[in-house]
């Protein structure tokens, strides 16, 4: 082989005089900065640009570097860079976005007001900043100013506004504006946010109309409509929509199958859930943690806790959602200790708890009267800084109300700055169930002054409060108020409250008439409440009338037979009394046994009025003796003497 021709090349390659590489173009630098995936890479590029003095050139390079810093979570670095760099319209928009990302809203507004020209990008950034900080009114005012100055809103403007809507009236206004600008039908992003907006404010029919009118639909559109059907409990429509995904030329994703599995959980439809689970295995979607948590929810709801535990333990990785699903499953099945053990294990693994985690644990404590565990969880909530979370605050207030600690509940309620409807309802119902009807009504009027729109649950709470304090006229006025102002239609639970309210007030004839007209399918339960009220208030003539009505309905409850038998016995109608006892036996009516329970060292001991059950009898006797002597030594005994 002749090497003479290759020698000069080898000599040139080893020479110290290398040819100078051409400087990267502005377009190449901009593309490189746009592809930065880590803060370290952006900082390294920043250092090279400083050494080569490229940042003193066209502002586009400084703009791209600042945009990279802001995108990678270093907004203060972006702000510092742009304050020293030459400014143009693009750099001001990037600086505005960086200031808003740094949560420096006053500085962002000062910059926005001094900008020589403000385009839709600047307005969108400022509107998003107001929405993210909970100042939706300021955002809507800025939109009006934007339109008055002739700046045309973009699709992104309408999507931001739709995400900030919290009332039906504002939602319709945003939708109308989007239709006028042609964004509602043309843009899938705007259509999707409008669907989600109508779902949030409870106008599901409008959400479906938006979906049908969209020119372009993607998988997000279908998922949003499936969420609407799920919230409305329309399982057949949801599964029809799920099956139509393929015919639309789309592919199911983790959100589609998780929504479908959640609907199966609500319906406790394990057969359909197994089919979707098979689809997840086939398509590989089971590896998504959001799908795994939905599977755990389904198995727990269908009383397959052991299968849920095996599935959970076989997962390659856990996150807060899957741990929450498993903790909630334990809570649903009434097993407190495994729930707490899993919670502690997740903390050791570095999995941060969420509001839903604490809500599930607190539900366990409230269901089983475990005050000690509840207060320990509350201490951890305060330590981790979750006390301001409205979901956690609601769960804490619900727990304290169920455990009878209303002072703790009221203190927590007063500390919550931004109260939502669920929190107000929880406080109203908690006070009502603890016999504080007047306080519950006061909270209700405070809620209305706070511009919170009540719902069916609110009406149930205030009717229960009116029933407790005997405010029949007030209760009827509230029913009219909810019908006329809030379009709340009375349901079975509300009608049952009305019957209870009339019965407590001694208006038995009115209660019977109301039950016969409004509670046709629930006559027995309504008559039982009336009958108990009659017996308590000593109106035995009405009690006999109501009991006879119940006997004609052939209930499984023994209450009407017992009342009639005792009434006949008091009047020496021995044949009629014997006839009632025989009728009760013939109908198979059974007397409901009352149970009491006592928690001792995380164990629940159950006993009846006649005999303590074998399990834990000795320790239960000892604790009851201690409670008795404590009552004798303290104010309970003194109160009895004073009486």
UniProtKB/TrEMBL annotation:
Keywords: Repeat, Transit peptide. It holds the Pfam family PPR_2. PPR repeats lie at residues 119-153, 319-353, 420-454. One of its GO terms (molecular function) is RNA binding. InterPro entries: PPR_At4g14850-like_plant, PPR_rpt, TPR-like_helical_dom_sf. It comes from Lolium multiflorum. This is Pentatricopeptide repeat-containing protein. The lineage of its organism: Eukaryota, Viridiplantae, Streptophyta, Embryophyta, Tracheophyta. One of its GO terms (biological process) is RNA modification.
